[in-house]
């Protein structure tokens, strides 16, 4: 008998890699934060002696969900400004509120609230873009959450940095401090082509090559963004990014609702990853990302929630379902984004976009034990012909029972093991009191 930390016995194991595989009555052996083996439960009982055994008799176990684009601390602005288009929302509501309220304490409390919500809905890793990324990284480390922290750049001063040089300098310092972390990786995060000028983009390209990290950016979010770029630069944002040498496998282009057929070809040729945020795009009426055409062209498409101020939740199960439905509606093709593809977008494709697919994104021996269990015994998920179909089209976040990140059991039987929900609620109420009074 081999001694291990944890043995998870599940009714179904869906490893995501290989694609389309569903394993019945299988177990996951976990030791030292890593997946040691995925094997039939009968064999696991003979081979492994585990310190902790978790029986999930009615559950499907999947790789932890990867939220490939969010602004975690914006959870404290949830519901602050609804039912508006992007630029009105940003210029007249969100940016003024951020100028007034964003501080290290705001980012700490907002990120903790967001992590609690993400863990409770099955997310084990998120890619963030927000002020005080040093605070976000510390909160993730303390909570045991995996994250890709955005080293932000924007052409206006904020409480985090005054100018491009300071944004870059602070970002590089943070990257250096985090370079040996098992849980936290970094990416450059220039906000968008319309808020970052050529000179900082050129520096980011150079440092991203040198440090071998991704570049995470909002791109082609709305038709107005594209029109404004044509007026100001004489070209579409993507063409400008291409001219600046930014198109390539490092680029994580978020939103992409405005794409010409030749741009889709270019994204595929250059191995750019796209992050689709369907709920944010719907709520801000930004447009529709042509996910079916992108996947057919071979582009890696991942999923993100965007921030809780434009969604208004951080629920990746909901995002998966909307992505699968919207792809069919928008393309007029019911075969677009089938359930297995949608689940892959929310797991392995996200990890690939963030450059961490060797660490996470599938239930594969040697990868980190980032695992989510979904209870399919709910009436609304009966009967189960295909557990992947039930996860994508019927499951809601209250069916997420257990979550492990790097082998740590952070959600056990629906309860957060390392976070105090009542205290998080109190802090959110306190912030609401201050913000609404202003
Ligand atoms: C420089 S920190 C990130 C910055 O992005 C803002 N933001 C949040 N959601 C969106 C979105 O959908 N499009 C563009 N910008 C967005 C956030 O409020 C921060 O200011
Ligand atoms: Zn965003």
From TrEMBL:
Residues that, per the record, bind substrate: 98, 191, 221, 306
Entry cofactors: Zn(2+)
Catalytic activity: S-adenosyl-L-homocysteine + H2O + H(+) = S-inosyl-L-homocysteine + NH4(+); S-methyl-5'-thioadenosine + H2O + H(+) = S-methyl-5'-thioinosine + NH4(+)
UniProt-annotated binding residues for Zn(2+): 69, 71, 218, 306
Molecular function terms from GO: 5'-methylthioadenosine deaminase activity; metal ion binding; S-adenosylhomocysteine deaminase activity
Pfam families named among the record's database cross-references: Amidohydro_1 (PF01979)
Transmembrane segments: none
Coiled-coil spans in chain: none
InterPro entries: Amidohydro-rel, Deaminase_MtaD/DadD, Metal-dep_hydrolase_composite, Metal_Hydrolase, MTA/SAH_deaminase
Its biological purpose: Catalyzes the deamination of 5-methylthioadenosine and S-adenosyl-L-homocysteine into 5-methylthioinosine and S-inosyl-L-homocysteine, respectively. Is also able to deaminate adenosine.
Annotated family: Belongs to the metallo-dependent hydrolases superfamily. ATZ/TRZ family.
Name listed for the protein in its UniProt record: 5-methylthioadenosine/S-adenosylhomocysteine deaminase
Organism: Sulfuricaulis limicola
Organism phylogeny: Bacteria, Pseudomonadati, Pseudomonadota, Gammaproteobacteria, Acidiferrobacterales
GN (gene name): mtaD
